[in-house]
UniProtKB/TrEMBL annotation:
Alpha-carbonic anhydrase domain mapped to chain residues: 21-279
Organism per entry: Pelobates cultripes (Western spadefoot toad)
Domain of life assignment: Eukaryota
Function recorded in the entry: Reversible hydration of carbon dioxide.
Family: Belongs to the alpha-carbonic anhydrase family.
Name of the protein: Carbonic anhydrase
Cofactor: Zn(2+)
Length: 335
């Protein structure tokens, strides 16, 4: 999730691999090899996770994410770039989010996806379900000087995770996706005029999963406060396929080309962690609804049976009265 930053920043020696190692998602430099070069990748509190109901806990103190400066003027520009691992878009330092008690300044956003034949490439999963793709919007804690400093602190980063699913055409994502042709090869850049970045997020900013995790790419620092929105954002099949087919991990001069596909990390152990949820979990809600429905049905049947019994007795009584009247009538006729 942090791949944009590495080429753009001067990398302190401690982060850099000691030799010519270039991490990847498959092959000999695939993720099982990451810990040999980047210790954090084999450590604790790693991401991504599957949000399974057994690790979720409702937390009523989680407030909706507050966005600031996300509506960017068309006179400002973002830089879209291919860094050999993903496509990233630089963001403006005037953009930030509030997650009390801190303010986090926006740094960049990037994508993770699968491939045409298996279009399931989100990093986080919900109840075992992997989504089509995932966007990460990276922010750093404003108490640190920059993102490079912040990533070494436990409370340094806050990332918003947006799950993408196939549905209707999305015009805001199209502003990014139609420019992928300009960054096909590693090292290429393109400019995107400002727009309202809130339109990239789901409408419900109050429904999310929150936990403490890590960067999902080397160096895998466990410094991320994750907020993954519950509701996916829909893009069209054509838009997803443009993401899955447009890019290469290799540069334009390379004799061999390597498609940029399946750039998502496998699920990590939750360890001793609990994932907080800002909404009542679906299963609990379903059980509650079923219980309520059960009570309503039982009450209904009981009332029906009681009424039926009461009606029966009433009819019996009516018959007795009728008979009595008959007798009285008979008696009168006799008078
Ligand atoms: Zn990411």
């Amino acid at each position: 999730m942090f791949t944009l930053l590495l080429p753009l920043l001067s990398i302190p020696a401690a982060w850099a691999a000691s030799d010519d190692y270039h991490w990847a998602y498959s092959g000999e430099n695939g993720e099982t090899s990451w810990p040999t070069k980047y210790g954090f990748c084999g450590g604790v509190h790693q991401s991504p996770l599957d949000f399974h109901h057994s690790i979720l806990q409702y937390d009523s103190t989680l407030y909706p994410i507050r966005l600031q400066g996300y509506n960017v003027s068309t006179t400002d520009y973002f830089t879209l770039s291919n860094n050999g691992h993903t496509v990233s878009m630089s963001l403006l330092p005037t953009m930030s989010i509030e997650i009390p008690p801190f303010t986090y300044i926006a740094s960049s956003l990037h994508f993770h996806w699968g491939n045409l034949a298996h279009p399931k490439g989100s990093e986080h999963c919900i109840g075992g379900k992997r989504f089509a793709a995932e966007v990460h919007v990276v922010h750093y804690n404003s108490k640190y000087a920059d993102v490079a400093t912040a990533m070494n602190a436990a409370d340094g980063l806050a990332v918003l995770g947006i799950l993408l699913e196939v549905g209707s055409f999305h015009s805001s994502y199209d502003g990014i996706l139609t420019r992928l042709v300009n960054v096909k090869y590693k090292g290429q850049n393109a400019l995107i005029p400002g727009f309202n970045l809130q339109t990239l997020l789901p409408t419900r900013l109050d429904e999310f999963y929150r936990y403490e995790g890590s960067l999902t790419t080397p160096p895998c620092n466990p410094s991320v406060l994750w907020t993954v929105f519950r509701n996916p954002v829909f893009i069209s099949l054509e838009q997803l396929q443009s993401l899955e087919t447009a890019l290469y991990c290799t540069d334009g001069n390379s004799t061999v080309t390597e498609e940029m596909i399946n750039n998502y990390r496998q699920l990590q152990n939750k360890g001793d962690r609990i994932v907080s949820v800002s909404f009542r979990e679906g299963v609990v809600l379903a059980v509650a609804l079923a219980s309520v429905l059960g009570v309503v049905v039982i009450t209904g049947v009981t009332c029906y049976l009681c009424n039926r019994k009461r009606r029966g007795k009433k009819n019996e009584k009516k018959m007795v009265v009728y008979k009595a009247a008959m007798v009285a009538e008979e008696n009168t006729s006799k008078v």
